[in-house]
Amino acid sequence: MGRYVTRRLLQMIPVVIGTTFIIYALVWALPGDPFAGRCGARPCPPAYVQAMTDKYNLDDPLPIAYVKYLGSLLQGDFGETFQGLSVGEELLRAYPTTVKLALVAIAFEILIGIGAGILAGLRRGSFIDNLVLVSTLVVVSIPVFVIGSVLQLFLGMRWGIFPATVGGDASLYNLILPGFVLASLSLAYVARLTRTSLAENRRADYVRTAIAKGLPQRRVIGIHTMRNSLIPVITFIGADFGALLGGAIVTEGIFNVPGVGNLIFRSITTRDGVMVTGAVTVLVLVFLLVNLLVDLIYGWLDPRISHG
Amino acid sequence: MPVSPRRSMVLGTVAVALVLGACGGDGDDEAGESANTVTVRGCNPQAAFVPANSNEVCSGDILDQVFSYLVRYDAETGQPENEIAADITSEDSKTWTITLQDGWTFHDGSPVIAQSFVDAWNWAAFGGNATLNSYFFEPIQGYADVQGQFDEETGEYTEGSAAAETMSGLQVVDDLTFTVTLSQPESQFPMRLGYTAFAPLPESFYDDPEAYGQHPIGTGPFEFESWEPNIDVRLAAYPDYNGEVKPSIDGAVYRIYENDDAAYNDLQANQLDIMPLLPTSALAGDTYKIDLGDRFLRRETGVFETITFAAATAVDPRIRQAISMSINRQEIIDTIFAGARVPATGWVSPVVPEAQDDACGVYCTYDPTAAQELYAETAGIEEPLELTYNADSDHKAWVDAVCNNIQTTLEIPCVGIPVVDLATFRDLVTNRELGGIFRTGWQMDYPSLENFLVPIFATGASANDGDFSNDDFDRLVGEAAAATGEEGVALYHEAESLLAEFMPAIPLWHRVNIAGYSTHVENVRLTVFQTVDLLSVTTTG
Fold it and tell me: pLDDT per residue over A4-22, tens digit each?
């Protein structure tokens, strides 16, 4: 177990270095001078361009500039945005909101997705099963910005049940609407995955044995069938959680959630390369850690999967 | 259902994480806004809140509420009036004596004196400080001496390389008087003193400019309370504000939205009070009139769009005039901009108090027959016309419409060429790598004739993207700068009319801002700079 985790952690080092280099190179390799458009129709004062070029090491060859960047990154310094704000602080400010939003979304996926999947899986071919299949099909086929805008229009603006946007007040209640929208697509997948997996396992040998032993129905389904059926679902939810922590550009935009997605989107449009690289580096780390965590949870759920 | 220890572990982790998530994060602000506070749509500033580094709407919008300047522009007419200045006089338009009113204070309580201006301007102009707005101080004597040099090896500024620390043209006479000597006479100099770059700064600024940029201390009707990047900027009315009109609201919150439509939805839900510029989606089909009733206002602003000819394109001015005459401006405005533009009839925005009507005359009027006749007189152009624009903004629709006009009327093949974003596009323009014609826009710094003519069309000027050069034009604007009053205005008008003969850039249209507001506010007005006039706003309680 310990060796496994160590090995996985060591594997992360080349991945992180590789991805940050690619992002760094791509961000600064964009054609055109990033300071050319900042003074409207005039070129910016030469002293300003000179000072900024120096600050971001833009006149160094790419590998040297990258090594300088990596050097300060290792000391925990993410650099400064064009606004003169610390990239690290910006990320710290945006992350709690994104984490909260992701957790709300995951809660919806677990409650509604798994719930509906179990109901459908236990009564295959019934009305409920068909209802779940049709409604998830509908959700899967609608783009997320349509779901977001429609829910915002009715629940937020017409009926005033939820605030139309979140803004600075990212309380749990305010995040329910965007969290649900964010979860909607995965929720449909979770429901279908749970249903199929449960239905399959109900025909498995050990379930038949359990029934033959005379165990009550609740125990057969609740303990023996469920635990095995949830493995693919947990994999999916875990990967989804990692993706959600990367911020949701569309949903955060619609509901004005000041999270990581919003931050990255703005930094890309203003060509704030240091901010983009810093944010993506953190995203890569988070994604790798979440994946590791999911792999460890497998061992808990199914002792047959062992990490030695 | 009995729960196995393993599953309870997983569920427990999820539950704990949810609770932690709910408690974590200090962004929560349950205080709510007081009844007499207004919320305004804000955006993320591109630089910290230092006047010398503020050159765009997001930060300018806020600084204009936090600062009072020597002059202020009337929100209705754009006419400059003395604000902190008691008097601005000059005998030769070259040496200006500026006296200040007594009684103005910074928000930290220190008095506003002549030194506050002189030091601030010297700081902004100094090369080592590398400010975005340093070129506004170029006309002042001694500007070149404070620029200094950057080390070629390291790229860093060389300490002590400037010939002087301060500009020789700025002299403090006494606490309330200072003189400004320009390197050339400039009769409209006082007009520009209400621009953000010319703000005074308190002593405390020089101790730590970076900390100041996070929390500016100004002289204006509103004090800066806090800035939470990506979330909001909070302002509170300054009780000792010395201006004539005091704000009637207690404060304002500039709530930051990345997405226009999100802000517009909040406006409709009455969760946002003022949105100074409605999104294109709301303008289409006049949707905003249905959504907001009569809670909107229109305001012409100093944003002007043109098409510039690259220096080598259509050298014969008659071709340029014919192209201009083949563009049906009104039709494009009605169909594409839903009325949020007015056709241009000259090169100066109508918000400038002395702007003349119809400087461009017939050459900016849609007349396909006349355009064809004029074009037939010329040798014509051989190659297809390429109209380049930046594709990261809503430009494609009108570019295609303009090209379509040109093609239909003059039978010149015309294609729109998108460039990925503004930075790349401006880089191509600045390095003169574009041929054909390209989109240009001008957002005025201050409402004066000079600001629409000299920086764009004078020989070698900073925004002269088409390398237009005409001795008569240069002479006229030079004489206009030296002349005073009516005479100067007449000379600028003459210079503007001269542009019609050469058509270095085709005037297209001026931007009209359409703002919307909630039922919580009344008396909303916009300034010529597209910002909200918070002095006039009242709340309905």
Answer: 888 888 988 899 889 889 9
The number of helices, as runs of H, and strands, as runs of E, in chain B is 16, 19
CA distance B156 to chain A (A): 6
Q: Does A161 touch chain B (CB under 8 A)?
A: no
Range of the domain at A195: 87-301
CB of A304 less than 8 A from some CB of B: no
Q: Which DSSP category does B295 fall into?
A: -
Residue B1 has pLDDT above 60, yes or no: no
CA B510 to chain A, closest CA, distance in angstroms equals: 16
Q: Supply the angle between the helices A176-202 and A127-141 in degrees, to the nearest 10.
A: 130
User: Closest to B262 (Cβ–Cβ): which among A83, A97, A255?
Assistant: A255
Residue numbers in A near B453 (CB within 8 A):
none
What local confidence, expressed as pLDDT, does residue B15 receive?
45
Q: Do B14 and A90 touch (CB under 8 A)?
A: no
Nearest alpha-carbon partner for A19 in A59, A95, A73: A73
Final residue belonging to a domain, choices A14, A45, A62:
A62
CB contact under 8 A, A84 and B213: yes
Q: Look up the CATH number of domain B301-512.
A: 3.10.105.10
Q: Are A96 and A49 contained in the same domain? A: no
Tell me: the pLDDT tens digits for B400-426?
A: 999 999 999 999 999 999 998 888 888
Residue A78 in any domain: the answer is: no
Gap between the Cα atoms of A293 and B19, Å rounded: 19
pLDDT, one tens digit per residue, over B29-63 is 333 467 899 999 998 888 889 999 988 888 888 99
* Distance between A13 CA and the closest CA of chain B, angstroms: 27
| Pair A94, A242 in one domain | yes
- Looking at residue A192, which CATH number applies to its domain? 1.10.3720.10
Question: Residue B97: beta bridge partners?
Answer: B89, B179
Closest among B55, B49, B217, B47 to B135, alpha carbons compared: B55
Q: Which of residues 48-87 of A touch B (CB under 8 A)?
A: 48, 50-54, 59, 82-85
The number of beta carbons lying within 10 Å of the beta carbon of residue A271 is 23
Do both A172 and A228 map to the same domain? yes
Alpha-carbon gap: B445 to the closest alpha carbon of chain A (Å): 11
- Nearest CB among A34, A43, A96 relative to B24 is that of A96
Contact: B4, A96; criterion CB under 8 Å: no
Q: For residue A82, tell me if it sits in a domain.
A: no
One domain, residues A163 and A294: yes
Number of separate domains in chain A = 2
HEC letters along B114-153 = HHHHHHHHHHHHCHHHCCCCHHHHCCECCCHHHCCCECCC
Are A181 and A36 part of one and the same domain? no
Q: Using an 8 Å CB-CB cutoff, list chain A residues near B423.
A: 30, 32-38, 271
Q: What is the percentage of chain B residues whose pLDDT exceeds 90?
A: 64
Decide if A285 is inside a domain: yes
Q: Among all residues of chain A, which has the CA nearest to that of B424?
A: A32
Residues A121 and A53 in one domain: no
Nearest to B7 by CA among A206, A171, A222, A120: A222
pLDDT value at residue B541 = 67
Residues of B in contact with A86 (CB under 8 A): none
pTM summary value: 0.85
DSSP tag of B529? T
pLDDT at A28: 82
One domain, residues A22 and A96 = no
Query: CB distance A256–B257 less than 8 Å?
Result: yes
Q: Grade residue B97 by pLDDT with cuts at 50, 70 and 90.
A: very high
Contact A93 B132 (CB under 8 A): no
Cβ–Cβ gap B231/A39 under 8 Å: no
The answer to whether residues A259 and A133 belong to one domain is: yes
Banded model confidence at residue B8, pLDDT cuts 50, 70, 90: very low
Weakly modelled stretches of chain A, pLDDT under 70: 32, 306-308
- The interface pTM score, or ipTM, of the predicted complex is 0.83
- Of the two residues B6 and B429, the one the predictor is more confident about is B429
State residue B347's pLDDT score.
95
